[in-house]
Amino acid sequence: MPRESSLLTHLLLLLPPLTLSLLHPPQPAPAHVPMLVPHTPTPLTRSRFSAQAQLDFTTHCNSSCFHRGEQDEQLTDKLAFETLYADGSRTLTTVDVEGEEEFDARLFAHPSPRRGPRGKPRHKRVRRQIYGADGRFNIQGDNFLLDYPFSTAVRISTGCTGVLVSQQHVLTAAHCVHDGKDYVKGARKLRVGFLIPPSINGTKADLTSAKKPLVRWVRVKRTRVPKGWIQGPQDVSMDFDYALLELRWPHRRPFMRLSVAPSSDDLAGKRIHFSGFDSDRPGELVYRFCPVEEESSDLIYQHCDARPGASGSGVYGRVWDNSLERWERKVIGIFSGHQWLEIDGENRDYNVAVRITPLKFAQICYWVHGNRLDCVQE
């Protein structure tokens, strides 16, 4: 199947769904964001950097983990976090949570699986990350690669993708830098890559279309990973598969704001979008979108086509911003990988994103700002 042109992609993004202009925008209750109170960091031994990077991340889940809520035991322990510095040293920061008792119970309700099309029980599990016809679009050309929101996607030197969430911070998947037991070898000198279209590097205009973008690499100053991911030998869970990278110096590109993930019913078109560097299309930025299929307290289940390398992409949706009175693209999750979900005796396969819950928003916001008072409101 021939690849659609990037022009089609651009036009597709610029044209809002017609129904949005006809329907009254949703007015969901604002999410209550708790406050993380960090303790003094404790020095840890240096990392051995012995883990292998795992780009094709696949997990299995049954009804018990699907219905697990964010108020599980040892939650404050999971919200503690490690900080890895460029010199290889690391610290552990424990936290307290203020305002947790004020949470609206609706934020932690366990949505029932939607009764949409179901796959037949599979006796042999086959890796599926492309569902039917490939619905991905290659993003090409200066006007597209440097345009928002595509310009917020960056490469991670371990082989993953990340998304710019501030002038100096990149959000990505935890498994791109840590396997749950140790940091991956590539995390020792972790870098973030910014795409530079060929024409900006002096390439002649008539050759631009045949050239692939170059990458400008920037070193990472420090990396933060939640303790919920660093569990040692474990039954791997995607719930805390996210990490934040701080660059050595600020970039000049637009970034995408974070948001507590709303219900899919409160997303424009009930759709999510993300752009990443899929391994089967080397050197290309690949965009896709699709509807949300199912939701749990911590994960977003969908059938957006993706291949290894897309892990860590910023999953965004059009969220209604009451203060601006318009739909805004905001990061509501991080693309993690693939999961087999076994419920009611059936095996269903999905691509999965970690949703940004109020507690995760508070944690990531603190990592970005370094001041808990800046993270009370979304």
Automatic annotation (TrEMBL):
Localization: Secreted
Domain of life: Eukaryota
UniProt KW keywords: Disulfide bond, Glycoprotein, Hydrolase, Protease, Secreted, Serine protease, Signal
The EC number(s) this enzyme carries: 3.4.21.-
Signal peptide coordinates: 1-21
Gene Ontology biological process terms from the UniProt entry: proteolysis
Annotated family: Belongs to the peptidase S1B family.
Annotated protein name in UniProt: Serine protease
Organism: Lates calcarifer
